[in-house]
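Checklist before submission:
- one chain only
- standard amino acids only
- sequence pasted in full

Submission:
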Amino acid sequence: MDGAILGISAFYHDSAAVLIVGDEILAAAHEERFSRRKHDARFPVNAVAYVLSESGLKIDDLDAVAFYDKPYLKFERLLETYHAFAPKGLKSFLSAMPVWIKEKLFMRKMLWEELEKAAGRRIKTKPPLLFPEHHLSHAASAFYPSPYTQAAILTLDGVGEWATATIGVGNDNSINIIRELNFPHSLGLLYSSFTYYCGFKVNSGEYKLMGLAPYGNRNGARFRKFKKVILDELLDIRDDGSILLNLKYFDYATGLKMCSDKKWQNLLGMPRRKPETELSGPYMDLALAIQEITEEIILRLAHSAKNLTGCNNLVLAGGVALNCVANGKLLRQKIFDNIWIQPAAGDAGGALGAAYASRYIWKGAARTNSNNPTDAMRGAYLGPKFDAREVHRLCRKFEAPCRQYENFAQLCKDTAALLADGNVVGWFQGRMELGPRALGNRSILADARQPEMQKRLNLKIKFREGFRPFAPSVLAEDVDKYFQLDQPSPYMLLVAPVQKDIRKPLPENYETIELYDRLYHLRSDIPAVTHVDYSARIQTVHKETNERYWQLIKAFKDLTDCAVIVNTSFNVRGEPIVCKPEDAYKCFMRTDMDYLVMGDFLFSKAEQPEWKEESDWRKQYELD
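Returned file contents:
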């Protein structure tokens, strides 16, 4: 088929596969959703098989296969880095080199072997295998699906081959990278170092660090001390947003961890927090300090992008672009007229960017989707969907009673009533989302007005840290009634303040009281989605992109006069978002969810048979 290109990301974290035909994204999915291994980095055999099946194409039919970075350039960076720091890093060198020499230097051969596994046969006619650079893949994933014909492009992550951040410009079907910041100086790795020091997992705990930051005391001496120490000792921020890190404090270049625990303890006056231990004030203040510094760097980079390109539009990608607090601040600064962020901004989205870069840069194809008034992502609903036969099969397997509705509007009314009564509902509909956010097709839902709902969802449903905030889904047409946000946020990538007229007053000593006393203070009319600083990470729900989800929230509004509900991803901590009906049913039965809606079927927990586990799922997801 003309213009069919398969994009792949793999071998670091969040591997994925994407298939585009012409300008259209036909299918895209994370490997973790099929393998049930969080942040699965292995070759996306299952995701490749899915996107090919969804399209009806074989690998022989493709114009090209695109991998999201250049392995030889990455190998060059590793060799030069180890040489520059020698003899330091010998242990890390001996750990990394065998994998590269045995596998990654023979990437073409390995990719074809894996592709034949995904295809289930020998591939006779092999299309060209392309390797765009990592940050070009990020840039392409941000610009080409965006609604703009011209835009400044900002990419920010840990590291690709050499680049850790780039500023570029997109014009129609071309992308020109103007500036780049190179390894080992990296905003992404700086933020991940603080993620590590605050006791969270690198490459997955950055959301937790961002969520912890608002608990810090901005008026306190400890916060000011941390911020000064970081700026004086750990990094130098230039006017253009570029940074230089003091590498004597960091180990990631040649070591096996992010930073030197001993040196940081001497610098900060406190030890690294051990994972899963109680969170105390110093770590909250440290999280706030690095979050504010990150925001300042991003704002400076955005000003540089504006000055270098003269564009009115900005697009963003790379893992740091998932920092929705910084995104919200960037939006409110009005440096650009319009901002668009790739919903799969991390490595999974690199698969999409690799495919797009191959189409528009390698093939030189004309871009015809650039006048789309929204974007080409189709709401990010690009994964597999399942019909009633799959639900019936599940019911037979688990002897699970349910009610099938003939009228979806009635199902929405009944589900809205269940939510209004304080029930927690698993909501499984249509095509699975691409990216780290559940956007109403693989979601757990609740009433945002319930004061105890955040605590219940964290501790009894998600099995995660109680301090973590939840996001609101709000009807797009009603967003300004609840939030100070003047543009759509369909991908839950913008944090904005809650409107002042629905806030509740805070006690005078609010910033100094204990974490959970602050957390459970009634802060607004929608307390379950209002963070401790009166902010919320917002998803605007649009009838045009997800009519079923929109219908449900509209039914809830008709019943309660509230157009906001809680939306969190359909999984427990440590588990990938559910993919198949069976995944959803298992998660439903393992938690305190009250009801499950799959397609037109409603399951009540009270009616289900006793649940018996076949494996130690809590150990699998590291909950114990």
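Reviewer check: Residues 388-620 form a domain with the DHBP synthase fold (CATH 3.90.870.20).
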